[in-house]
Amino acid sequence: MPVVKVSMLEGRTPEVKQKIAKDITDSLVRNLGNKPHHIYVVFEDVPATDWAAGGVLLSEYAEKPKKE
């Protein structure tokens, strides 16, 4: 019973999540041989204020002008 956790910034539509879940499920069925109903995909929507890269919150990237 594989469980795949997908953490990503919030804001994706249910339709996008459905497509991602289908792709992940299809890949695990093909590569592991599990039945689709035994594969679980869990989405974790994370606000940009709770995610950092390089020591900077992603919410701050949107506030700063990009350097070229």
- Indicate the overall shape: elongated
- Helical residues, percent: 25-40%
H/E order of the elements?
Answer: EHEEEH
Uncertain segments are none
Q: Provide the structure class.
A: alpha+beta
**Radius of gyration (Å):** 16 Å
Biggest β-sheet strands, sense, barrel: 2 strands, parallel
Strand order of the largest sheet: 1-2
How far do the termini sit from each other?
Answer: 46 Å
What's the rounded overall pLDDT mean?
93
Proportion of residues in extended strands: 25-35%
Describe this structure as you would to a colleague.
This protein has 68 residues and is an alpha+beta fold. It contains 2 helices and 4 strands, in the order βαβββα. The chain has helices spanning 14-32, 58-63, and strands spanning 3-9, 40-46, 52-53, 56-57. The strands form 2 sheets. Strands 1-2 form a two-stranded parallel ribbon. The longest helix is centred in the middle third of the chain and has 19 residues, at 14-32. The radius of gyration is 16 Å and the shape is elongated. The termini are far apart. The model has no long low-confidence stretch (mean pLDDT 93).
